[in-house]
Amino acid sequence: MRDELTADELAFLLRQGLGPDDVLDVRRMTRSYWFQEIKRLNKTIALGSACKKGGHRLRSRKGHCVQCDSSKIAFAGRHDLTQYLYIAGSLRARLIKIGVCKDLRQRIRQICTERHGDARDWEVIYAVEIERAGEIEERVLSRLGHFAIHSHYWKNGSLQQSIELRRCSISQALEAMSAGDRGEGLLSRHQLA
Length: 193
Ligand SMILES: [Zn+2]
Description:
Layout: H1 7-15, E1 23-25, H2 31-40, E2 45-47, E3 58-59, E4 82-90, E5 95-101, H3 104-113, E6 123-131, H4 133-143, E7 151-155, E8 158-162, E9 165-166, H5 170-178, H6 186-190
Parallel strand pairs: 1-2
Antiparallel strand pairs: 2-3, 4-5, 4-6, 5-9, 7-8
Bound molecules: zinc ion.
Zinc ion (ZN) is lined by residues 51, 53-54, 56, 65, 67-68.
Domain Bacteriophage T5 Orf172 DNA-binding: 84-150
Organism: Bradyrhizobium centrolobii
InterPro entries: Phage_T5_Orf172_DNA-bd
C-alpha cells in the first residue's frame, strides 16, 4: 500500500496517527462494494478518485475527502483521543515545531534523532493535553502557515517531508495556539512547561 501513496498522503496519514496499513485501495471497486469491504477489512481510509476541490484521493468510510476536512475521520483516527498538542523549539535551527503525540519525552527524543530541521537540540516549550488535539493542531499550523519551512528528515531509511516546522517566535506560536474558538483559554488552564 505504501508504494501507492504520495509523500503528501503519507504525511497526512502520519499526522492523523494512521499509516498505509489503515488504507484500502478502492480505485477499482464500485462504491457500494467498497463501503462494505472497508468495514469488513477494518480499514479507516479509502484510496479513491481525486476530490473535486483539491484533487485529494484519501476518503473516509463514507466517501468524504478527509484531506479537505480531517474531521471526517470520525473513528479510529487520533482525532478522538486525548493527546498532547505541543510546541517544540530548536535554538540551533531557530525553528518551532507544532505537533501532537501521546508521549512527550518519547516524541522529543524522536524528533532529535530524526534531525527535524537538521537539528538535534529540540525541547518542549509548551504542551497541553486535550481532546481532538489533531484537529486543533491543524488549525494552529494553518494560522502559522506563512511561516512554514520546507525541510526533510530521515525516517526508517526514507526521506520524509516535514510539514510541521515554522520559523516564527515562541510568542507567535503561543498566540496562534490560544487564538480563536476552542483554543481560547487553553494556555492558562493547562500550561505545563
Ligand atoms: Zn479534498
